[in-house]
Amino acid sequence: MFRYAVIGYGFIGRRHVSTLKNHPDSDCAAVCDRNQNRLDEVRELYPDMPVYLDADKMFENEDLDGVIISANNNQHKDLVIKSARAGLHIIVEKPAAMTVAEFDEMTAETEKAGVSFTVHQQRRFDKDFNVVKECYDKGLIGDIYTIQSSLYGYNGNMHDWHVYKSEGGGMLYDWGVHLIDQILYMVDSRLVTVFADVRNVINKEVDDYFKIILRFENQVTAEIELGTYFLSDRKDWFERHWYAGGSKGSMYADKFSPEGRIVRTTRLLENVKEDQDKSAKSYGPTRSFGVPEPGLIVTEDIPKADTEQSDYFVNYFKALKGEEEFLVKIPEVRRVLRVMEACRESARTMRSVDFE
User: Fold this and answer.
1) Which pLDDT does position 180 carry in this prediction?
2) Are 214 and 148 in contact (CB under 8 A)?
3) Phi, psi dihedral angles at 182 (to 5 degrees)
4) N or C: which end of the chain has fewer CB within 10 A?
């Protein structure tokens, strides 16, 4: 059984402690946090759990195999380096680092120490994402040319340390890294250009809206949009949304537990080369936008996904035992961070950025 410590007992840190406690291959052997009140909570829930305000002391006193780092984003680099020098296997929360340069330092230290290093990109196992990925992988709607991924909120404001730029706050660091990772993991192609609009709509210091357009060499264009103050009264608006268009139909999926359809036509309109009838029945020269006749539009069920975010740790501990490869690989993490930096450059210059 692998003995792991959790550093950072916030929202996700609490989940990590529970996961380690309940997974057959692991145990949570200690918790570290700078906030004494949070450590008091750990003692109440887990009376026998050692708790620490200082990671160095925890490394000195506890017999550990690894660590999950879920502290504030700006603390990731130092904690990863300390953990590597302590000889511990490392999972770090996303984003792995504030910059690509930081991440390269972290990677060098883990390679030097000979420890495993990966990132908690658990949303690769989200049901909504895997429904779209199956459509893409199996060509269920033909050759996909556009993928739209969006998430909207109504509260506007960030919370806790996420309101501070110095702490690594903002939505690009928070949700953006997940949404970008999903697209890059799905579309196996060279990424040619990145265009982004990144804004502070409600928040003074950190971004709370972005639109990102990724153009790939295989002719797929992916559009990612997130807004924390992006409002509508439409049903299930404040949920996950996907749309994909292909050469043999389209598909949409809404909500994290996805509801949607594959949509097709039973036949295509014939091309009209010569002068055509301009009667009302023909709907004019732009016949594609007329009212479809009955039976022209047909739908099918979207695929079912049986994945769970906990599958991340199933893979992780199998990989740690040498039974599988780590699903989330270091070059993939670095590529996501590079895209995020390209997004900030594009937003600053208001121009597309050449990527690969």
Assistant:
1) 98
2) no
3) -60, -45
4) N
Identify the burial level of 229 via C-beta atoms within 10 angstroms of its C-beta, where 0-12 means exposed, 13-18 middle and 19 or more buried: middle
pLDDT tens across 142-162, in order?
A: 999 999 999 999 998 888 889
286: confidence class by pLDDT, cuts 50, 70, 90: low
* 134/136 Cα distance (integer angstroms): 5
Mean pLDDT of the residues in the chain: 94
Q: Burial of 268 by CB count in 10 Å (0-12 exposed, 13-18 middle, 19+ buried)?
A: exposed
> Could you tell me the pTM of the whole model?
0.94
Q: CA nearest 91: which of 327, 322, 323?
A: 327
Distance in angstroms (rounded) separating the CA atoms of residues 42 and 53: 12
Q: Which of 1-10, 92-101, 232-241, 288-297 has the lowest mean pLDDT?
A: 288-297
Strands, DSSP E only, in 181-324? 191-199, 209-216, 221-227, 240-246, 249-254, 259-265, 297-301
List the Cα angle 71/11/319 in 5-degree steps: 70
Q: What is the DSSP letter of 162?
A: G
- Cα–Cα distance for residue pair 36/41, rounded to 1 Å: 9
